[in-house]
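Hi V.,

You were right to ask for the full record rather than a summary. Here it is.
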Amino acid sequence: MGRAALFYDIAVLLERYVGQSCGISVDNGMDEHEIDPDVFIAFFELVWKAGWIAEADGFIAGWASHAAGMIENITLEPRTWIDRDGVELKVARYLRNDELGISGS
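Predicted structure:
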């Protein structure tokens, strides 16, 4: 099991708390999951609105940081997520090689 499996398992657990599907498919066997962008974004917005779950000092702040990064990669639009205490969520985004200054082979 890899990071994608853990991310998926946490998302499925959170479905119970927000009452909506996360929009992530079951692992395809290669530690990869397909995501329905519209469903996932709506799901994360509900998780974020719940406050105590995903905020900067919440139970799953690391998961929320990566989820926010996935949304940024999907939409190509940076967003700022401010919790109810005014703390900004650190967005953990996967960067492509060209964004890192690494040329492809």
